[in-house]
């Protein structure tokens, strides 16, 4: 499926199993695109507070992703891959309600890993974002 930005195409080939979540197996980037690699985005709020609640960190992280994309004149449609690092079980109902609102019916490719810790002890989730535009 081509997106409106004419730089990215996303696919789920029919010869492999369907995605087990809301992501695309294949993301193809036009050879004329510029690549953007962002530092991991965390659940910090605009006042530099990191909430203790995991789901609030998820909400803040997704908002921070939209904001950092916007700082480069990009939208969520430009995201090609997100790696998700979490220190505790993800509440997928909450996560996907925000994820689907941000990325819509053709979400980027995704990898999820559960790890023991992140850069600060209070962090519970961090998203590593790659984009092209």
Overview of this protein structure:
It comes from Paenibacillus rhizoplanae. Its EC number is 3.5.-.-. It is an enzyme of class 3 (hydrolase). The chain is an alpha+beta fold. The protein has a single domain (8-132), classed as 2-Layer Sandwich (60s Ribosomal Protein L30, Chain: A). It is built from two helices and seven strands. It has helices at 54-70, 92-103, and strands spanning 8-11, 26-29, 35-37, 41-42, 79-86, 109-114, 125-132. Strands 3, 4, 5, 6 and 7 form a five-stranded mixed beta sheet that branches. Helix 1 packs parallel to helix 2. The longest helix has 17 residues, at 54-70. It starts with 7 loop residues before the first strand and ends with a strand.
The helix fraction, in percent, is 10-25%
Quaternary form = single chain
CATH architecture assignment: 2-Layer Sandwich
CATH class: Alpha Beta
The chain-level structural class is alpha+beta
Pfam family, one: Ribonuc_L-PSP
GO molecular function, one term: hydrolase activity
Protein name: RidA family protein
EC number: 3.5.-.-
